[in-house]
Each structure stands twice: as C-alpha cells, then as structure tokens.
Amino acid sequence: MKAKETTLRLEHSGGHTSAILMEPGDDATSIVILGHGFLSNKDSRTNLRLTELLTSKGLSTLRFDWIGMGDSGGRFAEITLSACCTQLNYLINDMKNRGYRDIGLIGSSFGGLVAILVAADHPELFALGLKCPVPDFPEMLECEFGQQGIEEWKRTNTIPNVTGGSEPIALDFAFHEDCCQYNAYEQAAKISTPCVIVHGEQDELVPIHQIHRLVESLPGEKNLRLLPEANHHFGRPEDFRVMSLALTEWIVTHSPSSQSTAKVPS
C-alpha cells in the first residue's frame, strides 16, 4: 500500500512551518519527525530516504523546513537556535494533537543539535536518532571560519557561502550569540530516550571530540555508529546506505507499535 502524502502549513507563534506528512495507513500510531541540516530543506536526500524506509515499516513521518529555510516562513538571516527549538516543540505537540501516541525524532547536523535540546524536555519520545549532530555549533563555526571570519561575521552580519556560491550569506550575528546560550552536553545528560548517533570519522565539519563527549553525556540506552570513511554528507553510496539503515533500525526496534527486532532490508 502506497503511503499517503499530505502537505501541511502549520501556523505558530514563529510564523508558519511547511511540512509533509507521510502516512502508511489510517491506523498508524507512531510517527517520526525528521529535522534537516543547516541551509538544507525538508526534501534532503537523507529525509527522503528515511521517509521511504520508515513508512515501509509502518511508521508515519513528518519532514519539515526550519524557520527561514525551504518553504517555511521567516527570513534565514533572522533565525535563531531558540526559535528552532520553539518550532520543534510546537511540531511535537501538533502531532500529539493529531492522535499520534508514539513520537520519535531524527535530526541531521544542525537539526541534531535542535533535537538534543528539545529531546531533553520530552522523555515521552520513544527513540532519538542523530546523524552527524553538532553539539557545539559555535565551536564548529569558529573552526570553519576562523577568528577573523567570526569577527567579519560580527561586523557584516554575513557568513561565507558554505553552499559553494560566491556571494556571502546574510545571517545576523545574533544567531551565534543565541547559540552560545545553550549547552547541549548538559541537555544531553537529561535525555532518557534511547539514542543512536551515526557519524563519519572523516567528517570535515563536526570535530570528533564533540561526538565522544556527547556520547559520554547521554545517561540512557545509546549506540554510537562510527563510519571510518564517511564525511559530513555521507557522500559515498555505501556510507549513505549504512547511515540510513542504522537510523531506521534503531527507530523501528524501539517503536512501541512495531516491537520489531527484524533487520531493515538493504
């Protein structure tokens, strides 16, 4: 049976969120919310593959655009981590109101950071998946841009074009200042939800010491999958396959509606 796709425009205090709800059947009671990375969108390669895998196992998915990205409201230049946390909290509550009893969460990169911060306040989540998360976003940006680049950002409210373009990207320095107010390691220490982290040892953006510290901070059931050859984007087909299946298996295994221990087919 083909999954039913519904395009949603969800109004909230931060504006509106553009999202796509995929339901494998009318009786689905579990849903997984998918948070994409920085300067990406809800139809990222990872989100689309996870949607395909999860719905084939009987779980609904909600993929969405962060504020100021994709088709959601707001200007990218004005986003803050705080606003994204508020947005994700709203989405979790909205899915509860739609009748979903069991909610899981997967976050990629920047989306992984937001997922950590929000999951700490939602012990009811049945599973958490993190793909190359960035627990310390300011440190990552400082490593990427250098101190001179940070000072330039503060002066111009623009960052270098990390998408490959030639023009700088407008982003208020308030984003950096807001990120500095959060300690994801402290929040991770509050997470009781079973958590899997999939990370590439060749990740060129997220320092590996951040991942090890994150794992040490998590007090509950956890699993770290390190892929020796994978970069931040899991560009090699085999790395992408392993990453997608690892996240899916963790979610399916911990879903109360499936209670499945079967391996997800490759």
Automatic annotation (TrEMBL):
Residues 29-131 form the Serine aminopeptidase S33 domain. SUPFAM superfamilies: alpha/beta-Hydrolases (SSF53474). This is Alpha/beta hydrolase. Keywords: Hydrolase. One of its GO terms (molecular function) is hydrolase activity. Gene3D superfamilies: alpha/beta hydrolase (3.40.50.1820). Signal peptide: none annotated. It holds the Pfam family Hydrolase_4.
